Amino acid sequence: MRRTEAARELGGFVREHRTDGGRRLRTAGALLVTGVVGLAFGIPVTVASIGTTDGAPELAGLLLGVGLIGLGLGVWRLTQALRTREQCFDVHERGLTHRVAGHATLIPWTDIEGIGAVTADDGRLLAEARGMGLRYTIALRDGRGIRVDTFTEDAKELAETIHRAVHLGELPRGRGRRP
Hints:
Elements: H1 3-10, E1 13-18, H2 21-48, H3 56-83, E2 88-92, E3 95-100, E4 103-108, E5 112-115, E6 135-140, E7 145-149, H4 155-168
Antiparallel strand pairs: 1-2, 2-3, 3-4, 5-6, 6-7
Helix pairs in contact: 2-3
């Protein structure tokens, strides 16, 4: 669905919030490489440390742990990147258009239950770089949820706009003609 068709149903276009899929893929790649390197060093160290009680078993455990966690997080982030490729949220006067991989879903403000808890920073090392710095879920009345994280441009502004429209009745003002 093109933006102009959605604009007719949801009123004037206000702004768009794109999700940076390239950054999400780069993060997945870095995690996968970390996992592979951790396992590449961890497996030989584990084999070499069999039967010893020196520091080798601890080092082997550390390397294997980094490898497995890196691989797990990398696969998770890669799956997320592929599932939400070309994701974008278009804000209109009377709702949102959620676009993913060429498919658009119109979401009027009345179909939104609210915004889940907005986590601004989880406090962990490199949280923002890993895409965990800001996250929340747009809860729909039909029970579905759309996750938004720090990979989405101005995600905090999007949450504030949704909150104002759904709970306070302050609809955003678009530009252009109104149907």
